[in-house]
Automatic annotation (TrEMBL):
Belongs to the pyrroline-5-carboxylate reductase family. Signal peptide: none annotated. GO terms for biological process: L-proline biosynthetic process. Pathway: Amino-acid biosynthesis; L-proline biosynthesis; L-proline from L-glutamate 5-semialdehyde: step 1/1. The gene is 107359574. Residues 177-279 form the Pyrroline-5-carboxylate reductase dimerisation domain. It comes from Tetranychus urticae (Two-spotted spider mite). This is Pyrroline-5-carboxylate reductase. Gene3D superfamilies: NAD(P)-binding Rossmann-like Domain, ProC C-terminal domain-like. GO terms for molecular function: pyrroline-5-carboxylate reductase activity. Homodecamer; composed of 5 homodimers. InterPro entries: 6-PGluconate_DH-like_C_sf (IPR008927), NAD(P)-bd_dom_sf (IPR036291), P5C_Rdtase_cat_N (IPR028939), P5CR-like_CS (IPR053790), P5CR_dimer (IPR029036), Pyrroline-COOH_reductase (IPR000304). Residues 15-99 form the Pyrroline-5-carboxylate reductase catalytic N-terminal domain. Its EC number is 1.5.1.2.
């Protein structure tokens, strides 16, 4: 009896190419290998310089400094391949004619992680009718706990394969495009605000006499616990906060110190500033390195 070929809709994203191998690409690649069960041999990374590719080669990925070689290799895997645009917005705009020449005939998934660059701008550069997904990840994908929001013009056939893959390392909501810059400020950049808060908590404990290593471990565990509690109990953060504040106790004295310093307003300003900055860097106004 003739063996039936496997249902194509059940096949996975087969080959992944990363155009740009900086901090974000590295976080994604590490996450996919360690937490997404992706074989390093199915990943190819392109960078401008050989030295930037070395850390990927050490993981067992292929590397190149020729973008055309990367596209050729991913194309060879058929329409189940994915190319991730992981260069800076200004680098993309500066080399737009090269990116158009490379990708205008690519029929796999084209996943942009570039802050600020809209679907319309991506289509202007690369062409219409491609399977383009605009996304904004954060670097916690490296530990399988990222936030990676995405927007897609139409749910093209095969999009769910990409969704399944990227959901292995992140909370992967599909949202309206107008929300992407806000989520960039909230989680793409927001993770850096949380690192700052962890450092500040640790500093406070060191000031009071705890050793730095233990202070940072406890600060990190406290932030993880707070996030998990908000998520799993689905309770308003201020209700949870009230349960920590005993009347006349220790916590309300700390909360008072935060209020006097304008803590809430500072965080709101930070998310606002990072959100609005997306529009500026989308015009190529960024230091290109
Ligand atoms: N970092 C983060 O937390 C986040 C970043 N992003 C987005 O990810 C993208 C990358 O950011 P990040 O990784 O931080 O930046 P990096 O500067 O760390 O990385 C940029 C990479 O692009 C490579 N590169 C530049 N031009 C080209 C080109 N023409 N062809 C191929 N490779 C090229 C560089 O190569 P070389 O090293 O050889 O110069 C470098 O490896 C940005 O668009 C950013 O908005 C989104 C969310 C979060
Ligand atoms: O700082 C940046 O521009 C990138 C985009 C979101 C997080 N990092």
């Amino acid at each position: 009896m003739e063996k039936s070929s496997p249902d194509k809709s059940l096949r996975k994203v087969t080959k992944m190419g990363f155009l740009g191998g900086g901090n974000m690409a590295y976080a994604i690649v590490i996450g996919l290998i360690k937490h997404g069960k992706v074989e390093p041999s199915s990943i190819i990374v392109s960078t401008r310089t050989n030295s930037s590719g070395e850390k990927f080669a050490q993981l067992g990925c292929s590397t190149t400094t020729k973008n055309a070689d990367l596209v050729k290799e991913v194309k060879g895997s058929g329409s189940d391949g994915a190319i991730f645009l992981c260069v800076k917005p200004a680098q993309f705009i500066e080399s737009r004619s090269n990116f158009r020449a490379l990708l205008s005939c690519f029929d796999g998934h084209i996943v942009s992680v570039m802050a600020g660059i809209t679907l319309e701008a991506l289509e202007d550069v690369l062409g219409k009718g491609l399977n383009i997904v605009r996304t904004i990840p954060n670097t916690a994908v490296q530990v399988g706990a990222g936030v990676w929001a995405c927007t897609v013009r139409n749910n093209y056939s095969g999009f769910e394969k990409l969704q399944n893959l990227l959901s292995t390392i992140s909370f992967f909501p599909v949202v309206e495009e107008r929300l992407i810059d806000i989520i960039s400020g909230l989680s793409g950049s927001g993770i850096a605000f949380v690192y700052t808060a962890i450092q500040a908590l640790s500093d406070g404990a060191v000031k009071m006499g705890l050793d730095r290593t233990l202070a940072t471990q406890i600060a990190a565990a406290t932030v993880i616990g707070a996030g998990k509690t908000v998520k799993e109990t689905e309770t308003h953060p201020y209700v949870l906060r009230d349960k920590v504040c005993s009347p006349g106790g220790t916590t309300i004295y700390g909360i008072h110190a935060l209020d006097k310093a304008g803590f809430n307003g500072i965080i709101v300003d930070a998310v606002e500033a990072s959100t609005l900055r997306c529009k500026v860097i989308a015009q190529g106004k960024q230091e290109k390195k």
